[in-house]
Here is the input.
Amino acid sequence: MSSSKISLSEHWVERSLKAVWHPCTQMKHHERFPLIALSHAKGSWLYDQDGKRYLDAVSSWWVNLFGHANPKINTALKNQLDQLEHAMLAGFTHPPVVELSERLCALTNYQLGHVFYASDGASAIEIALKMSFHYWRNLGKTDKKEFICLKNSYHGETLGALAVTDVAIFKDAYGPLIGQAHIVMSPDARDAKDGESAHDVATRALQDLEKTLQQHSGKIAAMIIEPLIQCATGMAMYDASYLAGARRVCDQYGVHLIADEIAVGCGRTGSFFAMEQANVWPDFLALSKGISGGYLPLSLVMTTDKIYQAFYDEDVTRGFLHSHSYTGNVLACTAALATLDIFRDDDIIEKNKELAQSIKKSFAWAGSHDQIEHLRQTGMILAFDVKASAAPKDFAKEFFKTALSKELLVRPIGRTVYIMPPYTLSQEELTSLSQGIQETLHHVCQS
Here is the structure.
């Protein structure tokens, strides 16, 4: 077929399928599964090459906080672009990385006073794992080189991050290359037995964690956890008491606590950091995704002065010799500063509380739907599971395709339908989103 006989979207899709290897994708599936060729975006909407639009209900893989083409972030980047776009951070520094570090530390009440930068979430997890191990090594405790993660946890797909990931589809193929973590019970509230509360499940899970620590703490460097929500395995939400308990037992047995806030940080759970809701701080906190407002790749690890001081020495081998070429990229840090400005100037955390209530009301119908179970919400993230008896084969793909026809970008995880929208979502857009998901569910489960 000649290019003159196909649409502009089809033209770019054809070229992409020949040249681009897309992430988290079996490419052969695109023979029958839609690929969208985008042209531009504005606010909550993505537009394809033919002018069709899609409400970005998943914030483009959970990164876009304040809408696409946000004027405040755009202006900040344009102003910075004429001054300095990038410089190596080894031996140099610049105002955006200094100011960003200071402001983030202040948001933790200076409990986490040192910031190390990278480019993506998995890299941040690698940094936290290596830092924990190296800390214990510098203290002469070289046996502490193992890690604990939750059942069904996901922390990224580099080899180190996969070692603390418990999702077979990502991990099994690379088993011979990766270390094995101690996997403990998840506090997922969906696992409540008859008569149990979410707090009860968290209590049982803490007992399992403590049992593992009792047996292996001499060899364990750190426990890693996504605070409040295990996102990539189906938005598993749990009680904040688990975080406080994990902090307590990790302290008791001399093990670091790593908080992976790559997806749940930056206001997603109702507070800027999810850990705030347990009134405790981890030894390491990883951020990425939303920290740059969804504009540029940026990740970071925050840690305590105690850990920092263990590396501070004349001996170069005691230093943390990890690096990325784009560490602390000037433009990415500028986007992050503009993002923090919006949080501060527009009182986003308080406004999100109101928006979260609107989301809850708009999806109240799901609570009594006979094909739905486990309707749940934490802050700006809402999810529900479609019952196995109601979900057709390839439910997630069919739901995604049908939602696109209704101008919605929604990507279920298995049988879990979730939304994680931009904080700029209007009431009109929310109403349309709720109605579109309801119609999509009806169509997919009846077909």
